[in-house]
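Form 12-C: Joint structure prediction
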Amino acid sequence: MTQDRTEALREFRAELRAWLADNRPEAPSFRLPQSFLEVESDAQFEFLRDWQRRVYDAGYLGFDVPEKYGGQGVDNDKKRITVQEMVRARTPFLVNVIGLHWAGPTILMYGSEAQKQRMLAPLLRGDEIWCQGFSEPEHGSDLASLQTRARPSADGERYHVSGHKVWTTLAHVAKWMILLARTGSEGQGSPAAEKSSAAKYAGLSYFLFPMDAEGVTIQPLVKMTGEGGFNQVIFDEAPMPKDALLGKEGQGWQVAMTTLAFERGAADPAARERGAQLVALFERLASLAARIERDGAAVIDDAVAREKLVALRIEAEALRWSGVRAAVPGLCSERPMVLPLMSKLTISEFNQRVTDLAVELLGAEAQLWLEDAHAIDAAEWPRAYLNSYGFTIGGGTSEIQRNILGERVLGLAKSK
Amino acid sequence: MTQIPDDFGFQADHGTLRQMARRLLAERAPLSRTRELCERGGDDEGHAFDSGLYQDMVGLCWVGLDIDAARGGMGMGALTLSLLLEQMGRVLLPSPFLACSLAARALATVTEPRTAIDDDDEEEDESGEGDDSEPSTLDRIIGGDCIATVALSEPGRGAAGLALDYAHVQTSAAVDGDDTLVLRGEKNHVMWGTEADLVLVPARLRDEQRLGWIAVPLPCEGVEVSPEIGIDPTRRTARLRFDGARLPATALVADADDAERISRELLARGLTMVAAEVCGALEGVLELTATYAKERLQFGKPIGAFQAVKHPIVDVMVDVELARSLAYAAAAAIDAGVDDDEQLQLARMAKVKACEAYHHAAGRGVQLHGGFGFTYDCDVHFHVKRALFARATLGDATLHRRALAAALFDGDTRRAALAVVERGGLTLSM
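Section 2 - Result
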């Protein structure tokens, strides 16, 4: 890197840091969601959308998108710096999660010029929210068997979608859905053929579906916490134009998996900052253990509690350095790519273990729920424990993650 | 504040060295050779390890790799040494390499030896009274002429084992006249004690209420070396009984602050090195088990196709990777010169994580090999035994977890810090 470039990036970081210090929003009067699984009220959503708009308008979002599509121009260094600084400043998350991490990169890779022109700028600014229509009630982990169909109309001008998607985060505020649906004729009327695995994959197509189409019913689902925030979407001959297709007909599985690989295969540019967050999560648990008592003594002084706490502290440190090591190829030579591939599994399970230990340490207090005036930390810990299952299940369950790691990394025989 | 660099201090030539080590050990010391050594009770020269290979390792300057060039070493870092040890662990190499490396390091740690360093004493007799034996001992270790070890444990500590500081060491050294030390006490689990030409012994300096490290040449009158019958056939250990052994005052290589520094450094480095070696062994048992899961057919398919087999193997792999990250971080912390307390904390974490993961992995290895896994013919039992050995080496998980808990949770400053930890926001961004 040239001297000028280094200097320019240093200035960029300094400006960004100053901007974040001035613009990082104050804590709202309501509970600020910490992840897209927790966005429930309009007020929460608008607060987060407003934050994304301000980041975009200030020129700090879209460093993986060319300027002609509304981005800042591809600049991996600046992208890395913005992720690092935002994690460091503990800003609210950018609410258009599916758009930024899934739809955007996929459109960039497979989209037509018209699709890129139309979709990317409002996606970046948060003006148009995206949701994901992959899972179905009967087809979760076995995603490729999904049955939602997109039938071409007789005149070839549009498709009609019928089917049922479920566990759809943000659908209630979304303008667009990335939709995986069956277009192939292979399976139709022939269950045997549909079961053949090649046909199963070949029959899928990837669409950019407009959520305001007729024949779309969005029904809120209630999470196990009793809170809303995600949905199921029912399609009854819902029309979409033919140019909603992304890539080619029958290419859907490949399109979906490319993005997945892209997303999961990359080392985290803000590994160090995120590692610090993992340790910070543990510190909040330790802080809880120092505040709560058991028969007059702090729980953190209890020998059994300490053993369990330290075991998790070690796990946090191991995850922290795994994130950093992922960017040092010479120290990953045994199994290149395994660290990013395993991070979803390990971090979601770590999160679950932390929140699980918290409710264990809370003992008799653990069963008090959100509205109870005596609930410790307003029952944030039991809530976080329940929500932890959203992460060990959503985006590919831990069991599916283990299959992927066993088959793709260790080369074990396929389980299906 | 010094911190671990983003690249852990890794350089391309470290990778070259690792590759060379891997090739050499794959050729000269595969697990089948380890089995042969264990079954025959040693090599043709009467050593419990492959002494020819050890001398070749000396020739490659592996012993003393992390010792300053000014003191005769290669001046490379803890990370490089870790990468080598990882490869040795992979084949469960029976070798006093780790013991020698630690002893060399301990001697090199003493920045100001009690007597002036004199380069001329290289050829002096080791037991010669009044001579500056310390530098020549280091040279001899690095040169492969002296198998050295360190006495880290005392029977009086029971399950805790580790006895490195004044509070825990019971072995005593009394001064008799101006120039003689009289050593009494007992050490156990001394790595390669039966093979060693020299053992470094921490002892309480009688009447002075401080710790000293004493270099005891072996054999030595008044020192009884009894082999322990250990579970791990790839490792030899001994119990050493000091029954009024008389040593020259120059045998005291470090006392007071220097001695405590040796103890601290031995602990941080030792734990880091054990962690690295265990990470290699973990890789070894993972490889054995994954290979078997691909080859063994039941119900018409490789058993690895069954999730009840696949998932435990994946969990082992995940643990290997996590343990490896910690082991490298601990080594990088030493090389970067981060704060001593942080070095030790990372070293404890790395050792605990690696050994617990290894113990679990070895157990899964037996289970997933089925009936064959329970036999002596199957190599997995070597890992089960090494895991028990490694867990017990340099303090077990309970000891280190307690020490970590004290460092992390106790003390007024620490409590105050915990009190102001930011509340709320319990979900990680993923």
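Section 3 - Comments
The first strand of chain A starts at residue 130 and ends at 133. Residues 266-409 of chain A form a domain with the Butyryl-CoA Dehydrogenase, subunit A; domain 3 fold (CATH 1.20.140.10).
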